[in-house]
Amino acid sequence: MQSTISTDYLNKLGFEDGFSPTLAHLKTLLSLHVQAIPFGNFSSFLGREVSLASDQLAQKLLRNDQGGYCLEHSTLTRIALTELGYDAYNVLGRVYYQGAPVTTPVMSHLLTLVRIDQQLFLYDPGFGGMTPTSILSMNRIGEAQTTSLESFRFVEVAQSGLSGEVLTGMKYMLQVCIHNEWINVYAIDPEQQIAHADAQVANWFISTSSESLFTQHLMLSTANSEMRITLKDRVLRTHGKGGSNKKELTNFDEFERTIKTVFQMNICDGQLQAAWEKLVRTQ
Fold first, then answer.
1. CA-CA distance, 58 to 80, in Å (whole number)?
2. How far apart are the first and last CA of the chain?
């Protein structure tokens, strides 16, 4: 019998067919995940504890519809996928997206790798506004891999255009093709499997440090096969096959409506009000 977390995971994603740990079902799970469970950091933005305990993750992301950031998504998916019969494990990566670091970034991005028939696949629903909406093969280094929205590829870090001084311990760079240009996203070493304690240390830094984006900015995202929708602080953006739009939220009612209807998040009124007041005060 499946345990509660994997059962709740399938139910949350709306997976109705008989399940088996196949490559086809792994692809389906990720496609459903990015649509059903939003990325969000209300907890760290409001100075609240972010727990990686399995029962609390299941309650927050699967039952309460409150979303989470990468460490929550990927801890949950590693547990659920393992229960479902996959060979899944977590690694930590260094983020280079929308940045040009002069020193090595903190290993702060948690993701899940899944091994099927001697092939390794990236399963990462938790990178926010540029998370891959399909699984990606790590056996196709240098090859473009098409998803419903963008093309991604893995390259050796020596081909990333960055100095080795900012790539400590990394082996491969994930890149995304935007406007016909390959952009660095994050780097990993797939052989550096981490322990849960390692994720807890990264989670403590990300959720408490004044140097963390996740304590200073509110960041939400969701995606489907046609578009991505993101919110950074008060700026709502949509990017999709039909073009891009940008809108600034100007009042609390608009903010509340966006959280509840666009991102389908169930955040209590007190937290919504506190988040809006912080945005007005700091932005």
1. 10
2. 50
pLDDT band at 206 (very low <50, low <70, confident <90, very high): very high
Closest among 123, 116, 119, 89 to 13, alpha carbons compared: 123
Residue-number span of the structural domain to which 115 is assigned: 5-282
211-217 long-range Cβ contacts below 8 angstroms, 24+ apart: 212/44, 212/108, 214/41, 214/44, 214/45, 214/69, 215/44, 215/45, 215/47, 216/45, 216/282, 217/45
DSSP state of 68: B
199: Cα separation from own chain's centroid: 14
Mean pLDDT of the chain: 96
Is the CB of residue 142 less than 8 Å from the CB of residue 205?
no
Number of domains in the chain: 1
| Spatial separation of the C-alpha atoms in residues 42 and 207, rounded to whole Å | 10
pTM for this predicted structure: 0.96
Rounded CA gap, 146 and 151, in Å?
4
Range name among 98-102, 104-108, 149-153, 248-252 with the lowest pLDDT average: 98-102
pLDDT at 3: 57
Instruction: State which H helix or E strand residue 153 sits in.
Output: strand 151-156
Instruction: Assign residue 84 the CATH number of its domain.
Output: 3.30.2140.20
Closest among 15, 42, 30, 119 to 74, alpha carbons compared: 30
Residues 6+ apart with CB under 8 A from 129: 39, 219, 221, 228, 230
